[in-house]
């Protein structure tokens, strides 16, 4: 009987420990982490300002804004509870929600200004086919609209004199991409190829097998330039990287064209650890919504290409999870 009692006590203690681990947390200091990028580095130079803006809006809490050493470090910190708020990419959020369900929760999705070509005269989003047609217009030069959007596309750019007119024509060709971890620069394009019976290879491509050689180029604008200069046959870039180099290469729109789009890539998130006290999650969510609406806050966060935020929920990232799972199972 004594052994049974001791066993029951041990089991009860384990249950209590687990329950404690799952209990809501309400830290005095909230650690906010950005994932590393040139834009994030610019934000970090104004970390003190952002901390003060957050503290004004979440009374009784102090904030510490940091830059993660790499993408994985931010996620690991959130899983460990040392980081409470993370500026995760859509793919990062998808990954952690697949591998560690229930541990991290999206609260906001960033918005950026969309391109005029993405909207019709009534301000409604056009179909992907219509978008391709709009970008093929002679007067298209990557004009921005005044409308916010929560996603963007990866576009396939070729020279107009390349003889490449369809995705199918890429077989056996060399395409500029970003690192294999890049969503719009590699992962989404890889999914697009897979959906059409094609695939990236690092060596010489066999066109009869639907192979396309990828050549890693550092930076989306540089990939667009590589197409213009005929260094590669085509390139996948975010829409529309040509706008970043048109001042230096004024003929880039006239000499190149877009022949394919990936499905929409969801914008970056502001995510929190799931076991934060509910009231604190809401306070953080509302704080960022308010901050981005101020001149000072917009000045800080627009460096990260964020012009606003919309409240978000986990279901919004179902498509991102599908892409993540494809990447995990086929590209790792």
Helix tally equals: 12
Give the C-level CATH assignment of the largest domain.
Answer: Alpha Beta
Q: Could you give a short account of the major beta sheet?
A: 7 strands, mixed
Poorly predicted tracts of residues: 1-21
CATH topology call of the largest domain: D-Maltodextrin-Binding Protein, domain 2
Strand content: 15-25%
CATH architecture of the largest domain: 3-Layer(aba) Sandwich
Strand segment count: 15
Write down the Rg. 23 Å
* CATH-defined superfamily of the largest domain: Periplasmic binding protein-like II
The overall number of domains is 2
Secondary-structure topology with pairs:
Elements: H1 2-22, E1 29-34, H2 38-44, H3 47-57, E2 62-67, H4 71-80, E3 85-87, H5 90-99, E4 104-115, H6 128-136, E5 144-149, E6 151-152, E7 154-159, E8 174-177, H7 183-195, E9 199-201, E10 211-216, H8 220-228, E11 234-238, H9 252-255, E12 256-261, E13 265-266, E14 269-273, H10 278-291, H11 295-301, E15 308-311, H12 318-330
Parallel strand pairs: 1-2, 1-3, 8-10, 8-11, 9-10
Antiparallel strand pairs: 3-14, 4-5, 4-14, 4-15, 6-13, 7-11, 7-12
Helix pairs in contact: 5-12, 7-12
């Amino acid at each position: 009987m004594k052994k049974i009692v001791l066993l029951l006590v041990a089991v009860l203690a384990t249950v209590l420990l687990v329950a404690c681990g799952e209990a809501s947390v309400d830290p005095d200091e909230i650690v906010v982490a950005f994932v590393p990028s040139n834009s994030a580095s610019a934000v970090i130079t104004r970390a003190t300002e952002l901390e003060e803006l957050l503290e004004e809006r979440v009374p009784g809490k102090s904030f510490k804004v940091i830059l993660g050493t790499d993408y994985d470090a931010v996620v690991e910190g959130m899983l460990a509870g040392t980081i409470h708020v993370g500026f995760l990419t859509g793919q990062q959020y998808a990954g952690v929600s697949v591998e560690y369900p229930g541990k991290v929760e999206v609260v906001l999705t960033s918005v950026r200004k969309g391109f005029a070509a993405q909207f019709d005269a009534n301000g409604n989003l056009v179909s992907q086919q219509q978008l391709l047609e709009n970008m093929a217009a002679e007067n298209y030069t990557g004009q921005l609209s005044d409308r916010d959007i929560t996603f963007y596309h990866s576009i396939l750019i070729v020279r107009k004199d390349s003889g490449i007119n369809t995705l199918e024509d890429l077989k056996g060709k060399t395409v500029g991409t970003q690192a294999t971890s890049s969503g719009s620069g590699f992962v989404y394009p890889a999914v697009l190829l897979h959906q059409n019976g094609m695939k990236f290879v690092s060596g010489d491509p066999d066109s009869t097998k639907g192979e396309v050689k990828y050549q890693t180029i550092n930076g989306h604008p540089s990939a667009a330039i590589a197409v213009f200069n005929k260094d590669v046959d085509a390139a996948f870039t975010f829409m529309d990287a040509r706008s970043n180099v048109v001042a230096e290469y004024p003929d880039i729109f006239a000499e190149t064209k877009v022949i394919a789009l990936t499905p929409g890539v969801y914008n970056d998130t502001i995510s929190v650890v799931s076991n934060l006290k509910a009231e604190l999650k809401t306070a953080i969510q509302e704080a960022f919504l308010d901050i981005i609406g101020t001149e000072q806050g917009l000045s800080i966060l627009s460096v990260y290409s964020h012009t606003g935020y919309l409240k978000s929920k986990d279901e919004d990232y179902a498509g991102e999870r599908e892409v993540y799972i494809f990447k995990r199972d086929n590209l790792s």
